[in-house]
Amino acid sequence: MLQGRCLILIDGSNFYFKLKDLKLHHLLHFDFSRFITLLSGERTIIRSTYYVGAVRTDGTEYTQQLFNNQRKLLAHLQKHHLSYSLGYLMKNGGVVHEKGVDVHMAVDMLVAAYEDHCDHIILVSSDTDLIPAIKKAQELGKIVEYVGFSHKPSLGLVKNCQESTLLKREQIVSLMNL
After folding, report:
1. Is the CB of residue 33 less than 8 Å from the CB of residue 147?
2. Domains, the chain, ranges and CATH?
3. Measuring CA to CA, how many Å separate 126 from each of 12, 13, 68, 71, 158?
4. 71 burial class (0-12, 13-18, 19+ CB within 10 angstroms)?
5. CB 113 within 8 A of CB 123
6. What residue ranges in 34-113 does DSSP mark as E strands?
7. pLDDT tens figures, 76-105
8. Tens digit of pLDDT for each residue in 58-81?
């Protein structure tokens, strides 16, 4: 069996929208504990972190609802022993963009690699902006595994990571507590 120490990094927005494509985006019903166990195998989990932009309320009912829903999600993650890291959301031309999340993920990946916190980095993201950090972690002797979704894999991450796992809809459904 696979042994060693692993770090699990989940790009929350990316994860949510991939689940939404599958019509399985009810994150409060997702069993993150079993998901983390599935990903880690027999490895010792050093840390598992969910990265997402922080919702701020502007006083409207809509943003207050988004804020409240995110607080419920963060509590759900903590219940499943996931830490979380918050970037921020920025509105530009009426469109909301997540900022800082990729940087937090890249920094955590590089700190773990340089400080030898883990042997294996499991990256649940399809963001190719992370490729420079992936390459550096690999140069430092770490195995980087891309975990994506079979219905929309990131070919760039498949190409640049030593290992790839593409999740099928049935696997995700089995992790939903409906």
Report:
1. no
2. 5-49+99-173 (3.40.50.1010)
3. 11, 10, 27, 25, 9
4. exposed
5. no
6. 44-54, 83-92, 95-99
7. 999 999 999 999 888 787 777 788 899 999
8. 888 988 998 999 999 999 999 999
